[in-house]
Amino acid sequence: MNPWFVWTAVANTARLSTVLQILIYLPLTLATLSTPAFLLLSLLSCIQSFIHGTMLLFWGAGQALSVMQMPIHPILLLTCFHAFSSTVHPYLATATTVWGVCLRAFGPMAIILEGMSSLLVSQKVGQVGKQLVGEGEGYQFALLIAAAVGYVTSAWVIVIAYPAAASSPLSSTMIGVALTSFVFLTIIGFALRRTNIIESSALALFISYNIWLCGFDQTSFSDPSSSYAPLIPNIVPHLQTLVNFITNTLPKPVLVALLYRLAILHFASQILPTIGADSWESEEGVDDGWDGRPTSALTRIIYHYRQLIFIMVYSHLLLLDHSSQIWWRFMNIGFTLVMWSIELLVSGDGEDDSTKWKID
């Protein structure tokens, strides 16, 4: 068997194992110990991920580092359990408190990044769709169907989620304001010929996704502490307890929000280097060409520190209760619509390559 294939399989398995450990250990610590213990594990994991990302940035041996870091997270988990098994050292208590404040302060930045990334990806989808329309009537028909499916799906999700999402007069008002603003911005964008149905349907799906999270049925998963039982030496009950924890305790809306936020940040980081690529590629001898552009450097940093971003986003989402999640979602919708309105109003009217893809 090819040694390269075996080593690649081992490295990929190590990466998957690390992700699963982070997904399970953080809510496990929060459920079985306390919030300070969870914050300590999050802090230690972030420090380890920062060191790991820095080594990747300067060393570049990604596969070897992935295998080497696999046993680190269980060690960090045991360290947290040991630290909180007796009287907690004052320095540790202070560190966890400060880290909790930092994570909560990270909330607005996460919302801004998610909203801007969602808008950027929606516009890129609209741009690609506009380019495909010019390839033939077959693409045009398929994209019209896709946009219609997007509108219908978003409307269906909003109707299904509305009874739970509109749990108070204020939240129902916020939903109405968001939907009305979206409809008016879409009409304005069509009138100014600065958007298309593909971009609009993508943003409709984004709004429906946030409203769905606001109305997620919290009774669909049990309280974290109720699914945990002391582990006994018998391996079968041990495994049953672990399966029960994974099935019932991992917060499903948090996992959905985590997956979307990481995915949209990844897509946005891939799109950023392509913005204005033609003007840079036409210049010879400017810095290092495409690789020297600021957006390319930003993408490289995000790529190497993706595990650190993953842990910070996950930790912040786990700290939020359901009511906090609702208001953060409404703020996300509002910020994205404001940014979209600004983009629609300040875009140029010319037929240059940067704007003609938005004209119907």
UniProtKB/TrEMBL annotation:
- Keywords annotated in UniProt: Membrane, Transmembrane, Transmembrane helix
User: What Pfam families does the annotation carry?
Assistant: ICE2 (PF08426)
Q: Which residues cross the membrane?
A: 22-44, 56-84, 96-121, 141-162, 174-192, 303-320, 326-346
Q: Identify the InterPro entries for this entry.
A: Ice2 (IPR013635)
Instruction: Please name the GO terms of the biological process aspect recorded for this protein, alphabetically.
Output: endoplasmic reticulum inheritance; septin ring assembly
Q: Which GO terms describe its cellular component?
A: cortical endoplasmic reticulum; endoplasmic reticulum membrane; perinuclear endoplasmic reticulum
UniProt name for this protein: ICE2-domain-containing protein
Where does this protein come from, organism-wise? Athelia psychrophila
Q: What is the lineage of its organism?
A: Eukaryota, Fungi, Dikarya, Basidiomycota, Agaricomycotina
